[in-house]
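Margin note: ligand = WT7.
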Amino acid sequence: MNMADDESGDGQLEARLAEQEAFEPSDDFVEQANVSDASIYDEFADNWPACWTRAADLLDWDEEYTQVLDDSEEPFYEWFADGTLNASYNCVDRHVENGAKNRVAIKWEGEHGETRTYTYQDLFREVNEFAAALRDLGVEEDDVVTLYMPMVPELPVAMLACARIGAPHSVVFAGFSAEALATRMNAAESRYLVTCDGYYRRGDPLDHQAKANEGLSNVDHEVDATVVVDRLGDNGFGHDLQRNQHDWDSLMSAHQGDRVDPVERGAEDMLFLMYTSGTTGKPKGVKHTTGGYLAYTAWTSHSVLDLEPEDTYWCSADIGWITGHSYIVYGPLALGTTTVMYEGTPDYPDRGRLWELVEKYAVDVFYTAPTAIRAFMKWGPEYPAEYDLSTLRLLGTVGEPINPRAWKWYYKHIGGEECPIVDTWWQTETGGMMVSTLPGVGTMKPGSAGPPLPGIGAHVVDTGGDEVEAGQAGYLTVDRPWPGMLRTLYRNDERFVDEYWQTHSDADAGEWVYFPEDGAKIDDDGYITILGRVDDVVNVSGHRLGTMEIESAIVGVEGVAEAAVVGGDHDIKGEAVYAYVILEDGYGGDDEMRDRIVAGVDDAIGPIAKPESVTFTPELPKTRSGKIMRRLLEEIANGEELGDTTTLRNPEVVSDIQEQASGD
Ligand code: WT7
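Resulting structure:
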């Protein structure tokens, strides 16, 4: 029997591994780890918030701060507020000045195997030249620059160039649609765009510029300048540059050799904005600042990812998401590490592609998502087995819960049973990792992220705010601020307080509690297992999508009267989008309609949000008060036995929907 096809139980995993519930890091790992003493938990607890100087000390400050935390206006916390620094200086210049100019900063590999290598000196040169170009285009301090770019090295160069001149960037994931780009540029009133002609996906060039131009045509205000990177060369789509559009290479030539002094930024000045999905249809502009965010990503890269300047480190995420911001760009570069960037997908040209790159670049630390691991598992261990993965020292995962079986597969087939695994829980809003074992300190328990990191006040509570007993499900909360936290939602302080601080705080008593909207449980050792979102957010392949956003895209399709979207279980993606749709009279629920709905979601958001299944129904299950009972739709999507339906106003629709759904 082909082992790749073996889906039963724990497959080929040895019985010993299958039953083992706790794992220890090897002595070799512990010996070399950046953090290996459990006393760090007490050190942080006893010395809070001053403990966070440890993170700030990883940076070079222009002006030292005098106060670690200012909590005078809760929940608008400020960190290191009177200190000043520049993120680009910290990620680039200081390594050049400290004798590491020839160390590799970025190793880039294109889908077809082209490579580009940037030493810190190369990065310094390009960041300066592009910073000069941005200034020349009129970008001033505090102007938001939108970066709608795929995984090309010009993306981190542009991010750092923005940071250098104090212009916050707002990166929009390249897989998002033209409409999503326009929404984000409008929300931030961003007048500058850096984009790309295209990129490769599974062998084919994609026309990104057409999407960017379409997005631009829907921006409500004047866009002063757009810069277009030429990635495709002769394989491009031949778009002419429009008014106010500039070619990246020509700008760089025009500014060859230019130097721009890094702007001294206040620690609380905005470093970037990142839009993420929430409960309503409108994406939230999460605001991160210069001092706290950079200190926090550097600290967690040091303590959790165990990064050393000599390491070659690879996070396989896309920079268009927070994982890439924090752990491809800012954290690793702040520490002077070599960070790997890969343009393509894991299965092109074949399923060994990632392991080929681990071998080729002798990767020391590898960080990926459970969805990828589940795909590797399905493909089978013969792919990684073909390559020498012995340079790996540490593995990490992020984005969604990892089931113990996938954890153990990763441990055995990628880590050779020698690398600790860090299962890191965090969010766009937290800026960096919050719950994880420290690889040089803690016991690992597959399926559980671990205890809160030192200094992080994470708890699992019931609706009344009391800590739940071990093993009971509750809500994850955080009752102390931390340097990497979001400061607000861009231009919407009210929504910031509503979304994150309302549910579990007791404002009158001065107790402010952050609510990440995840369910969780905790064990006797204080290890936290994340159970998933408790709001209307689905997590598809580790990507966060708002059901409301998808619903409004579907309702925008001609002929659709009403729609409800839920997340259903999916073997590889973790969750997939299931849509239930009521059509207007005169429209039929046929394949053509289904295609139009899927295309509508693709246009409004992007391919990742496309429904896995569309079920047509004359009615949606509603409570007497008229609320759609999503729980039932989830149960139908998962083919589960249905829970209580007695509160339904229209219980008879349920069996109709079930029949329809199973007929898909
Ligand atoms: C949501 C945040 C953090 C970068 C990637 C996603 C889920 C994240 C884990 C984990 C279980 C996880 C949570 C969280 N999540 N990491 N290790 N175990 N769930 O960032 O798009 O802001 O999504 O991802 O539900 O709230 P994001």
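Residues 1-9 have pLDDT under 50 and may be disordered.
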